[in-house]
Amino acid sequence: MARRLTIKPSTQPAITVTRRAVRSSKLVYVICTPNPRKYPQKRSRIIYIGTTEKGVHRVAASMSHKAIEFLESWGVRQLDVYIVTCPPRPGTQSWLRLERDLLIAFKFIYGRVPEANKTGKNFTPDRLSGLFQWSRLVKVLASFG
Question: Is the pTM of this model over 0.85?
Fold first, then answer.
């Protein structure tokens, strides 16, 4: 008789979706690791800052893509995704401006854009949109470590 297979359920959820993520379709998301990564000026848990206008579907797709890339690297056992939103403003794609401003602030504080971001390498602080307070952008980035 063949040996029976053992079943191992996970102790933690693989993905948790909150109501805030479902409510808004145009949002910015930040992917973090539990341990800070080295950047030229400081350490940060943030490895990716992205945006979507398709809502939580795109966040889940991006998470699965980035998970394959980063969970294979040494020392990374989990990735956390956080949502950052802002109120809409007529005639302005505010979520795109928020992503760009967060990337500019990240580059200014940490020395370069997050590891998984391919865009934003040439962003400079003079290209800020002016829609968001600099101190608030810095606080948002600091809240993710």
Answer: no
